[in-house]
Amino acid sequence: SRNRLEGLPRYVFNHMKNLKTLMLEENPWRCDCRLREFRSWYVGSTHRKSLSCTAPFGLKDAPWETVPEEDFGCMPQLEIYRDDATDIEDLGANITYRCVGYGDPEPEVVWDLNGKIVDQDNMMTENERVVKFD
């Protein structure tokens, strides 16, 4: 305990067959997707003390067993690209934007144009949408 651990992989103790005591309390646990599998293993184990989240803010001081597994997630990261071959000053020219979203759970990418959700049926490939605006 008190060794500044923020997360651990689930398998970290698999090879320690003779492990009798595991003291993990009073660590600054960051309850996100990197801790999810270890949390599930730990909550399901016997002879354990309750551990609490330090971060993110919304889970601060929450005991692991009271937080649903799916809430141990990571914030999505979005990258938006514009096709550099298109000069934005060419009135009437097509412009292609690509949005790649990463996260755990995987984020749903929704396009919003002037407060209106762009029709999700205008799909070319899994992560590419083509929409024509007049």
From TrEMBL:
<keyword id="KW-0433">Leucine-rich repeat</keyword>
<keyword id="KW-0812">Transmembrane</keyword>
<feature type="domain" description="Ig-like">
    <location>
        <begin position="76"/>
        <end position="134"/>
    </location>
</feature>
<dbReference type="InterPro" id="IPR007110">
    <property type="entry name" value="Ig-like_dom"/>
</dbReference>
<dbReference type="InterPro" id="IPR032675">
    <property type="entry name" value="LRR_dom_sf"/>
</dbReference>
<keyword id="KW-0472">Membrane</keyword>
<protein>
    <submittedName>
        <fullName>Leucine-rich repeat and transmembrane domain-containing protein 2</fullName>
    </submittedName>
</protein>
<keyword id="KW-0732">Signal</keyword>
<keyword id="KW-1133">Transmembrane helix</keyword>
<keyword id="KW-0130">Cell adhesion</keyword>
<keyword id="KW-1015">Disulfide bond</keyword>
<dbReference type="InterPro" id="IPR000483">
    <property type="entry name" value="Cys-rich_flank_reg_C"/>
</dbReference>
<dbReference type="InterPro" id="IPR052313">
    <property type="entry name" value="GPIb-IX-V_Complex"/>
</dbReference>
